[in-house]
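Try it yourself: sequence plus pyridoxal-5'-phosphate, in.
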Amino acid sequence: MPGPGFFIIGDEEKREVVEVLEGGYLSRYGQLDNPGFKKKVITLEKTVASAIGVNYCIAVNSGTSALMAALVGLGVGPGDEVLVPGYTFIASISAIIAVGGKPVLTEIDNSYTMDPNDAERKITKKTKVIMPVHLLGYPCDMEKLMAIARNNNLMILEDGCQAMGSTYKGKKLGSIGDVGVFSLNIFKTLTSGEGGFITTDNKTIYERAYGFHDQGFSPLRKEKGIGNWSLVGINLKMNELTGAFLLGQMKKLDQIMDLLKVKKQKFKKAIKDGGIKNIDFEKVNDPGEGHMILTIRFKNASTALRAAESLGIITLSQSGWHVYNNMHQLLTYEDSDGKRPYRKNMLPQTDDILSRSINLSVGVINPGLGSGFGISILSSDEEIQSKADEIIKALKPIVD
Ligand SMILES: Cc1ncc(COP(=O)(O)O)c(C=O)c1O
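Structure, out:
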């Protein structure tokens, strides 16, 4: 089941795509004076850079590609350690392995994002990058993480794949660290089925990431045929049809942020007004905008299990998508020394928090995340109240 962007696909996207079809030119590169070449990807990159508040954006074919190119942009390679939370989609971790780096898993805290204290403890001489993941649109504690990074001469890659448009202390996520990335798959704030963005203010990171996404060439292939290209890249480019569709979606980003904010506030208030005792909600590093989920935390795991069952959903530790404990491919992964660095229950704080928590949908309805119950950005006030009533009725006898 999809995320917010999917719910409001309409004429804006259609118009943009039809323009490209009529022009008949589908590659991101073309003759600028050819009227058939509509320059959608180039325009999109400028639009996204301005919306996020950075100098540069590269549009790519997935969030995973964005992560790999950003890591190469930061110079991550064999032997480099990257700190990444154990509660994230596996792509945050697999992208590090794909470029030869070593993911070092950190705990999360009650914000369901990277615990800065644990991240600091896990820094070694080999650490090069900290990768906070703004999971479910929840912003990480960027002030603390930035301070830790600067004090230890490390760089920050914000995995904002689930947080396009969300904010932290008035700044858009993806504009705070050295580089940010976004995904445009079907579960995300904006979607084109597949796609991704890299955002940065840093010219060197931009040029390296650009080169990695297009065979080592310099931005926009400015030199023709022969150039001093020193980085070997691959092909992760976005095509014009996807770029056009996304220009239509970009027009709706502010509207989606407003809807997420308003609907979540109403949903949370309606549940709070029910006076359920002994529950907590996610610790919010910044109330900001763009949270895709409402999370409830119970005092113990058995209560969370009973609560989840009563709503027909699963607890976060039972969720297949985001929990390192359930990533079989990671638990069986052998590094170049033949060692298995990741094992079940290696993050006790994360395990405890996830075992006591359930997700309710606001922007993304996905049983695999445990958010198979809740509201959507299109829910009316009556629907929001009725869902909250169902929750209150189900949870009160269990927790009070
Ligand atoms: C946190 C996170 N990082 C990276 C990715 C990878 O994005 P994509 O599926 O576009 O490759 C995802 C996608 O679900 C994600 O949620």
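One thing you can check immediately is this: The domain at 253-315+356-399 is CATH 3.90.1150 (Aspartate Aminotransferase, domain 1).
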